[in-house]
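Encode chain A's predicted structure.
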Amino acid sequence: MRERMRRAHPAVFVLLLAAVILYTWPLVTDLAHLYPDNPDARVLTWAMITAFRNLVTQPHALLQGNAFYPVGLSLTFSEPLFAPAIVAGPLHALTGNPVLAYNVALLLFWALSGWVMYAVTVRLTRDRAAALLAAAIFTLCPYRTDMYVEFNMEMTFGIPLAVYALVRFLESQRARYLALFCVTLWLQAISVLYYAVILAGALGLVALQYAALRWSGWRVRTLLLAAAGALALGVALSPVLQPFLVTRRELGFERRLSEVQDRSAEVMSYVEMRPNRLYRAVPAGYYYEATLFMGFVALGLAALGLLWLRRERAAASAWPERALWAATLGAIVLAGLALGTGGRSGPLVRLPSFTATGVALLMILLAREALDGWRRRQRGLADRRLDPRGWVQLLLGVSLAAFLLSLGPVVSFRGRPIGPGLYAWLQPYVLPLRALRAANRIGVLVVFAVSLLAAFGVTWLRARLPRRAFVGVTAMLGLLLALEYATFPLAFGRVPSLARPVDRVIAASPADAVVLEWPTNVPMTDADAMLRSLGHGKRIVNGYSGFVPRLPAQLSRLLTMPGPPYPTPAAEAYLRRIYPLDLLVVRLTDKALPPPRRSAWRELRQAPPAFLRFRGSYGDEDLWDVAPRPERGTVAERWVSFGFLSDHPLLRAMLRPLAPDPRLEQSALVLLNGQPVAEQRIDGDGVLTATLPPPYLQAAFNVVTLNFRYRRPHAALDDRYRIGLTGGVSPGDLRVQSAGQPYGESASIVFNGVELAANRRGYSLAALAPDGRVQATEAFDTFLDPQAAARLAAFIASLPPGTLVAGAVRDEASHRLTEDAVAALRSLGVAGDLRGHFRESHAFVGMKGAPAGTALEALGPRELALTVGQPPPTLGFELQTFALERAASGR
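Encoded structure for chain A:
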């Protein structure tokens, strides 16, 4: 019997693959060009093939991608997809067709998930008919076919196998099942981290339920094995998980509850029917992405599977049994009342929320399992294997918890909120939940549980029906199931050309070139640019995924600002910061580009702006060279990715001062991510060179800054450098500007040409030592932050006597200003009290320890400016060239 089951596995996989091909019809008719009309398919194709390339060419940087430049670790914005990459990557390398690679991987891994469900079920039930029906339900149910545009959501192979392996390990306490469990969870995590997070919660609940069902027979060795397995799994996962943690730390990516709410299931999602080949239905739309209705056949079989819970009651425990049944019935009634009343309590009785009753049901189930475990212990039963009753209890617990979590932060019923959800209760404390955006996808655990419960329903039928009747019934149920799940043909788009004419030109550009395709911040356009980059191989600024950095939106806003000139100077400055942005592709036929903008870009061919050079039209795209002009100012900034900077750490820049003056010592300070790296004099034309040392930011872009600086000899500090009546002397030129909200809304503190103010709402302060060293800078939002005034007072109190302090207000600073903060300002020689002066300006230059009223100060309803010393009228440098080069080129 076992040998026949083993020989059937290849045939079952082929059968399931054929079913997937049929139910995704007409995909198989043109695997090389048919594609879901959805940006996610393009993103996932890019992710798979990029993951494979990284495995082969740079295993030390597995999750670095070429999209979202200059942001790094761009594969962490989506899924790692390393398991399907092993299929899609070589196929793409052989054919050059990413669409074909995607579609083949989709069909194979979709069928693989069904086959794993079959293999697990046949192991549990020893019933091939039950296993086939469970696999069909798990593979073809509406949740799966509705999600056909989300390839990663079809890779559920780890869910049934991990649950099975964990239970087998807990039953046998053998290392081989622990190894199977760890390998399965590892494969699921390096493929679809979304499902790994969901699965991890389910596995914890499975272990808890098993412990309640089996009280005895535990060994100390089991705990040691489990700890060793957890350690090994952590080590194996670290190359994938660690970059995700870096991204969260550097970019702050995590989901807010408001994002999750829009992507949650509601109670009706589990009964939302859709039209199929068996019956007609008119969906009401009570679901996000996919309905979670499992179909009448699957739910009917699952209900039969619940009959395994029946057993003869033991007289000694009749009263606990009756109490638990009463509590279950009461919780169900209260849940029904919560749905019927819309979560509203009556004037006399306050009803518990729907979530509270659901959690109560879960606790009752755990209590029932613990009661069963206690009975077994009392009877001295040593068998640790779960019988069908035990498995049904486990599946009920998993499905109930998943159902509650899938409803999101606020539970909805028929489109109306009826109370807080379990997701909102747990999300502040369960960190992995902050990575999930679509709570409805937690419903995949319900899909798994119902599929396996249906298998137990089939075994219940087999035990009670004659063989011929059983064959007839299961054949009829299989046919009805096939018709109920049949919704093909599915809707696909086409990718007629995988290589545009412009892609061949881009591919011939230097290897380090960076490309921007316009328009950006448009999901389909950005995702298509990612797909095209697989052909030309260059870094691209475009990107679309589950998480998207702010840069594309800011770039889109600036490049859509009307001129003249068009593009605006602000857009030019923003593009200049992205180093080394070389090529701009304008998609003239893109639907997101309105006709006036198309005309504007066509007109630019004849009169291009100075920083763009028109290279030519290639099909529907215009190609432009980005050629930054010399930049003038006191600060020049470039944004560079981790990968580019790691390969190009040598900075070469040509600078010259705007106003050569032998009385000034003019220089440029090089900073990397705000940290000083080098300083070099710029008296006349010259080349600044510096090596930018690691560590570099891996996810956030690295900021290379050139700051203009100058100093005057101490002998030149005459009476103009005296600070009011404080008796102090400024070590350099100082200009302070303040503008309340109606008068300009800005704050600036410039010392020797260097901006020190944070330019945020409230007070900005800068503390300088007598020798000109900047001791500290800080901003205090004394309008909104209730702690800001206390922090301002503590900041001033921490400064040593004789410290020069400059301050400026932006927007509004009076609302939460306290007496302690005003007293602290007086210790700097300041006399003004901004309280009662809503949104007025305040600027001062004082000294720690000076009497009140001696500082240089201005306060009032206007823009204010104070000057100490003699700032040159023309400050700054002209940055003629900026280049980052490989270190070897400097030898």
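The chain is about 45% helix and 15% strand.
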